[in-house]
Amino acid sequence: MNTVSTTATHDRDGSDVGGETPIATASAPVPTRRSLSGRAPRRPRANGSRATRLIKEVLLLIAGIGGILSVLWLVASLVFGLSIVIFMTGSMSPTLPTGAAAIVKDAVPAAELQVGDVVTVPREGQPLPVTHRIVDISPVDPLSGAGPEARELTLRGDDNDTNDRDTYIVTAADRVIVGAPFIGHALTIMQTPIFFGALTLGVMLLVIWAFWPVRTS
Predict the structure, then answer these.
(1) Is the CA virtual torsion 32, 38, 39, 42 positive or negative?
(2) How many angstroms separate the CA atoms of 121 and 110, rounded?
C-alpha cells in the first residue's frame, strides 16, 4: 500500500509560490506464496478427490463381491453337485419362461424323485435334454435290464396340454431346486468370448486405476 504526504514551496520572502506537490513513498510489497515453478499454487480439489476415491472404492467393492460369489458358487457346485440349466423354450411357462435359469441338483437317484418335481433328463436322439415336471412315476420291469433302481418317468411341461410323447427310463435325474426368469439371458451373454474379454480388460483397468499413484501438491 502506497502512502502519500504533501509539502509547500515558498519564495525568499516567504510567500507561497507553488501548490501542493505530492511526494510518494512506497511501502514494502506484500509477499505472495509461489511454487517452485514461479506460479501460484492451486488449491487442491478436495471434493473431486473425495468423489474419485469413493468411485474407486465402490467399483473395487463390486468387483470383490463378484469374485467372492464366483468362488462360493464354484465350491458349492463341487461339494453339493450343483449346476445351472437355462431354459431355451417356453414349455415351462409361466413358472420358468424362455430365458429363465434354474439351479439343479445333479444325479438325484430315481428312487428319491417325486411327482411334481421338475427334472432334467436326456432325450434319445436329441442333443439337448428336456426339463419338465414329473406327472407320473412307474416301476420298471426287472427283465428290461434297467436295474432295480430305475424308474419310468412321465413328464409334461407346465405350458403344455398333454404329456410328453415318450416316457423316460432313468436311474437318476437332475432335479430343479430353484429358478428365476430372465437370468438365463444374462448367463448366455456372460458365456460369450466377447464378454469374457471385456470383463478381463475391465478388471485389469480397474486394478491399474485403483492402485495408480496419486500426485499430491
Answers:
(1) negative
(2) 11
Entry pTM: 0.64
For the chain, how many residues are written?
A: 217
Cβ–Cβ < 8 Å for 197, 132: no
What are 176-216's pLDDT values in tens digits? 999 999 888 888 888 888 887 888 888 788 778 777 776 65
- The cell 480397474 sits on which residue? 206
If you write DSSP's letter for every residue of the chain in order, what string do you get?
A: --EEE----B-TTS-B-S----EEEPPPPPP----TTSSPPPPP-HHHHHHHHHHHHHHHHHHHHHHHHHHHHHHHHHHHTEEEEE--SSTTTTTS-TT-EEEEEEEEEGGG--TT-EEEE--TT-SS-EEEEEEEEEE--GGGSS-TT-EEEEEE-TT-SS--SS-EEESEEEEEEEEESSHHHHHHHHTSHHHHHHHHHHHHHHHHHHHSPPP--
* Type of residue numbered 170: V
Q: Residues with Cβ < 8 Å from 62, sequence gap 6 or more?
A: none
Please give the Cα distance from 159 to 200 (Å, whole number). 40
Q: What does the angle CA 195 – CA 198 – CA 202 come to, to the nearest 5 degrees?
A: 135
Domains of the chain: 81-187 (2.10.109.10)
Q: Which residue has the cell 448366455?
A: 188
